[in-house]
Write a structure and sequence with these properties.
Elements (H helix, E strand, L loop, with lengths): L2 E7 L3 E8 L4 E8 L11 E2 L1 H18 L7 E8 L5 E3 L9 E2 L7 H10 L2 H7 L9 H11 L1 H6 L2 E3 L1 H10 L4 E2 H4 L5 E2 L4 E2 L1 H6 L10 E2 L4 E4 L2 H7 L6 E7 H7 L9 E5 L3 E7 L11 E4 L6 E7 L3 H12 L4 H8 L10 E3 L17 E3 L7 H25 L6 E5 L6 H11 L2 E5 L4 H13 L6 H8 L2 E5 L3 H31 L1
Parallel strand pairs: 1-5, 5-14, 9-12, 15-21, 21-22
Antiparallel strand pairs: 1-2, 2-3, 4-7, 6-8, 10-11, 13-14, 15-16, 16-18, 17-18, 19-20, 22-23
Helix pairs in contact: 1-6, 2-4, 10-15, 11-13, 12-13, 13-14, 14-17
Amino acid sequence: MRYLLGLDIGTSAVKAILLETGGHLVGSVMEEYPLSTPRPGWSEQNPEDMWQATLRAISGIITKFAVRPDSILALGLSGQMHSSVFLDRDQEVIRPAILWNDVRTSAQCRLIEDTIDPAVLRSEVCNPVLEGFTLPKVLWLKEHEPENYAKLRHLVLPKDYVRFRLTGKLHMEVSDAAGMLMMNVRKAAWSAPMLEAFDIDQEILPPIVQSAEVTGTITAEVARRTGLKAGTPVVGGGADNACGAVGSGVVTPGRGMVSLGTSGVILAHLAEPKLLEKGTVHMFNSCISGQFYMMGVTLSAGLSLSWFRNTFVGGESYDGLTAQAGQVPAGSRGLVFLPYLSGERTPHGDANARGSFVGLSNTHGIPELTRAVLEGVAFAFRDSVELLRRAGWNGSSLRALGGGARSPLWKEIIASATGLVLEEINIDEGPALGAAILAGVGAGVYTSAPEAADLIIEVESSVDPNLKWQKIYAELYNVYRDLYPALKGSFDRLTQFA
């Protein structure tokens, strides 16, 4: 047997999967590490913790499945986007990494917006300026920790830091670099206008590599510590959502996916980049060379349901809760939920937005409130789909991933609210699987990621829109869409009050 290894460097753990080259998923191992929140709104991690968890995950999967080192043909990497790992001239970590979900950089975001013409932002980085991105973190370091900024000689993202520790080579993979606000997305090259505007030396940024490109090989020291064979190729890989797209077969124009976890993502593969002037959506380079993906994000997707259950229902299981919601007609008897529990990304880009039940009466109980939560998240997904349509995506289905996608009712609600068929696939391993597939392309096992994905990923079943619900949701969505602008001023005032 011959194998490919995929690693996903996540926010809370490293996940390693072992894929047989014929497409059989052998299994996985997960190694956790801590997250630090030293101040409200701050989110940090020690890169050494990521590295030690990576070593444990690799050695753990080799031991668990009794794999011969020479049978692993290549390794691919996926990881959390935007998070900043700062290195000095000796390539040692300067301070804890500032993560993608850290929101300390609002002032730096306003500085970027005030400095760079909006047309230049669209043409260069193809994305709105948000606190989670990398450039605001660099500017924060420059302003608030000048002594650390003075030491800065290399800037990498988590998976590319792990790559450095595996191979001794510093590279920045293109789909991850696209989320830094420092790369020209269309050209896949560092953006001179963005760097010059803030006096950032391009020398701190490693060379950009493609997702299926071999970027180095496993060192003798890493081989000794993990059980891998020295010289095993390490391939570029991709950002978590970009690799998730590969791992679900969303690798050609017209395909899309919905990921329903704590947060929710609608992602569509596009041949050409396009940034809309209105609506907070992301446009990044995909793991398919020269192609792109557009992504909308709902910050509180599965979180909305878990919050509701934990706050109001106690020990009821999710299955029991959704079974009650299934007894309620579409539209929740005139009740609408806005799923903005932690602000909202798409389409509003508003950190002050807050969750709301609108239309409550004494006729509503737990079943109606539960169904309203499910429907509110589905309407948030439709917001993203509407923006993807405006950007030229013409797909008719979404591949459904994540824990929330295990609910038949929620899938039917989402299909009916968006008007799209939801497809269920045979393997739901997301980013780590995508990284393993890209490793196979880099090692010459597969001719391309689309060819490999179609070999490995199969659509097993699908959920069609309920035509009766679809008609109801079309009307209710218009109500949902009117609520945010009506409540925005109140959200802002309440945030200040809190």
